[in-house]
Amino acid sequence: PHKTIKTNVTICRANTKYIEREQQNKSYSCSDRTVRDCRAEKGAHVPFEVHIISKMEHAIEITDFDAPELDVYARLTEGQLLNRFEPEKGMFVAETPYVILRALDGGYEPVSILVERGVNRKGAMDVIERCQVPIYVSELEVLTQLTGFKLTRGMLCAMRRPRPRTLEEVLQNQNTRRVVVLEKVMNPTNIGAIFRSAAALGMDAVLLTPGCSDPLYRRCARVSMGTVFQIPWTLLGENWMEELSSRGYKTTAMALTDESYPIDAPELREIDKLAIIMGSEGDGLRDETVAACDYTVKIPMFHDVDSLNVAAASAVVFWELRPR
Asked: Where does the tRNA/rRNA methyltransferase SpoU type domain lie (predicted)?
């Protein structure tokens, strides 16, 4: 059905879109086409500004950078957001509509939204419709100045951290046959890429030792394409190797040694419950970790190349050792 738009320095609805324009006593109809197209058809040539702010009836214009409601975007460090001493008050920031939607699908609770004025990218309106929270809006240049970085796809969402899962909760499903253990992988881009590969290639959970980057860190979650909100994960304690063994997992260290099995060894595919352990970008796994594992595995390489980036290696490993 067509909607009639009457304009007189007001905010008006055109389907799910709003326009702000300056014009005297002019009205016309439009359907699913853009306001600009409708205006052109009617021969309206007076200057005006179109703001696509769909479903943003409660949008709050940013006028004060020091407003405490903006601290989560502008001033709190990752450590302060994590809030180790009061984890129930912890928060994180998700970036891009796609990632935010995956967080919402995973049950994560939104607190507020920071959005570029005029954002009309795929998924942005879905986020706004689903989140009954304050929406702070301004031009991209203002948001860049506020946050210190250029927003990817024009949207951030502050969300509450859920209660951390225990190892028992992550592994309680009998179908959890392939788990990934990351030892001191500190680069958030690598963590995000590993999560994405793990979700895509059949891994059932990701476990992180102390010293790993936070999977809910903004860049990490963005690189993962939101899979950090889909695949179960948790942080490990000191005796994680013994805990995995007690639950029936065989452990395999990804390391280059004289005793390493090639990754396509048939006996590896026959293992029912397998923990794949990968180390940091620079030093790899600790010697103690390698020695404690049931298997040591390597990816055969050529042209005198002896290693791959941990994120690239993870995709190869996950595909080859996926559950059959």
From this structure: 179-318
Residue 305 has pLDDT above 60, yes or no: yes
How far is 269 from 261, CA to CA, in rounded Å? 12
Distance CA 171, CA 204 (A): 9
Architecture of domain 59-160: 2-Layer Sandwich (3.30)
* Whether pLDDT at 250 is above 80: yes
CA end-to-end distance (rounded Å), the chain? 52
Which tokens is 30 given? 């439009």
The residues pairing with 6 across neighbouring beta strands, listed in sequence order, are 27
Ranges in the chain annotated CATH 3.30.1330.30: 59-160
Tokens 């995000």 belong to residue: 192
- For residue 320, which of 129, 174, 127, 178 has the smallest C-alpha distance? 178
Can you identify the CATH homologous superfamily of domain 167-320? SPOUT methyltransferase, trefoil knot domain (3.40.1280.10)
Q: Residues 82, 214: contact at Cβ < 8 Å? A: yes
Q: Cβ–Cβ contacts within 10 Å for residue 254, how many? A: 27
Sole residue written with tokens 């890429």 = 193
Percent of the chain with pLDDT over 70: 81
